[in-house]
Amino acid sequence: MGMSVTISAAGEHDAEHILKLQYLCYQSEAELYGDYGIEPLTQTLADLREEISQGHALVARLGDEVVASVRGRVDESGTARIAKLIVHPRMQRHGLGGRLLDAIEARFASDPDIKRFQLFTGHRSESNLRLYRSRGYVPVSTEHVGPRLTLVTLEKEQTPGAFAASA
């Protein structure tokens, strides 16, 4: 490719690019579960902008192109909820998802109130489950949300000082 992928905070100006990438990336999930009405495919630009403004959002760029993204927010219990980790299909299987997951965790790690990281994925999404487990996440619950989909929630405890070098 010749260019490096850079990871940075997403801004308001990135919302439309993120939404288009999200739509592309969730097609395979929709096909896997036979449900094209899943929230990532129906989210509006206004909803995405609001979501970005209420938490942290990162993008990975190859030159000027947004090729990956992740979002997260902290709830009142001290849980950093990580969501919508997406990587352009042509960029998958090169470690970019893991880099983004590490980067969003590092963003939250400086907050002393963070007790744990949590995310979820569908029960058939083997590559997602493999990535999350490789980063120390363990399943903590499942929720049957439809005839074909069970969501698996995974979490890991915040390790004090784990990200001090990258802060």
What does this structure look like?
- With 167 residues, this protein is an alpha+beta fold.
- The protein contains six helices and seven strands.
- It has helices at 15-25, 27-33, 39-42, 45-53, 96-109, 126-134; strands at 5-9, 56-62, 65-74, 79-87, 116-122, 138-144, 150-157.
- A seven-stranded mixed sheet has the order 1-2-3-4-5-7-6, with helices on both faces.
- The longest helix has 14 residues, at 96-109.
- The two termini are 29 Å apart.
- Residues 163-167 have low confidence and may be disordered.
CATH class: Alpha Beta
Secondary-structure element sequence? Answer: EHHHHEEEHEHEE
Distance between the first and last residues' Cα: 29 Å
CATH 2nd-level architecture: 3-Layer(aba) Sandwich
- Give the count of structural domains: 1
User: How confident overall, as mean pLDDT?
Assistant: 91
Give me the count of strands: 7
Largest sheet: 7 strands, mixed
Shape: globular
Strand content: 25-35%
Unreliable spans: 163-167
